[in-house]
Amino acid sequence: MNTDNGFSQLQMVHRLPRATLVDRFDFLREVCSGRRVVHVGFVDAGCADANTEAGAWLHAHLDRAAQELVGLDVDAPGVERARSQGYHAFAVDCRDTAAVQALGIPKGEVVVAGEVIEHLDDAGAFLEGLHALVVDDGVLVVTTPNAVGWVNAFASLANYEVNHPDHVTMFTCRTLDAMLRRHGWEPIEHHVFLQQVKARADGTLRSRMFTEGARVLLGLERALARAGRPYVADGLVVVAAPSGTG
């Protein structure tokens, strides 16, 4: 059976690439170790306080691993706060290549876009802008929630959805790879990670059920990922290299 644009239904079924389960922080620290790193969207607006309290602010982890680290974000107050803490950071919209180049910062051997692409209305323009930040033989590492991860699959059974209030886009492995390729990046590695349960049960039955249910589900995701079914996990990691078409 063909659709109007000529694709058959079988052409819409895709074999997923091999992926390994990683600890998000350990993996990114290893990739960035001893290298010049540009961290885009580093402020983590809306979650900064909770992540700092939980020891889960990614920028602090990268700072301990990278040889050089610069943070870029559109959140000017967050950037100023980071600068006051001694971090090298700039307020800039990475979709504006001229503005990025005007900063005069060295290009990174690694550009990390951690949990940012899902917040953007125009992910394509963002990915194109990142070419101005990476050396020719460097890599881009994108992390983002997995649209087909099991947390939301199970939450939907109770008519719930688990999502950051500022998210506007969700990717699967296939759609993220397609978006990267359209904008000059070739995926070279795929990994998955498990989200953290940061919420603390406040004593109410609903809170306890959510917290304990999430922990059980994450344990199941971990077991299945290790057994060769990684894409049940709720986080995606794609490492991509410039393809020369961006």
Give a description of the structure.
This protein is α/β, with parallel strands linked by helices and 246 residues long. The protein has helices at residues 24-32, 48-53, 58-63, 76-84, 97-102, 123-129, 150-156, 173-182, 205-226; strands at residues 20-21, 36-40, 68-73, 89-91, 108-114, 134-145, 185-193, 235-242. The chain has an eight-stranded mixed sheet with strand order 1-7-8-6-5-2-3-4, with helices on both faces. The chain is globular, with a radius of gyration of 19 Å. The relative contact order is 0.16.
* Number of domain modules: 1
Q: Give me the Rg, rounded.
A: 19 Å
CATH class equals Alpha Beta
Uncertain regions: pLDDT < 50 for 5+ in a row? none
Helical fraction equals 25-40%
* Termini gap: 34 Å
* Major pleated sheet: 8 strands, mixed
Number of strands: 8
Overall mean pLDDT stands at 89
Please give the count of helices. 9
Strand percentage lies at 15-25%
Strand order of the largest sheet: 1-7-8-6-5-2-3-4
CATH topology: Rossmann fold
Secondary-structure content class: alpha/beta
Short description:
The chain has about 250 residues and is of the alpha/beta class. The chain is about 35% helix and about 20% strand.
Key features?
246 residues, alpha/beta, eight-stranded mixed β-sheet, 9 helices
Secondary-structure map:
Blueprint: E1 20-21, H1 24-32, E2 36-40, H2 48-53, H3 58-63, E3 68-73, H4 76-84, E4 89-91, H5 97-102, E5 108-114, H6 123-129, E6 134-145, H7 150-156, H8 173-182, E7 185-193, H9 205-226, E8 235-242
Parallel strand pairs: 1-7, 2-3, 2-5, 3-4, 5-6
Antiparallel strand pairs: 6-8, 7-8
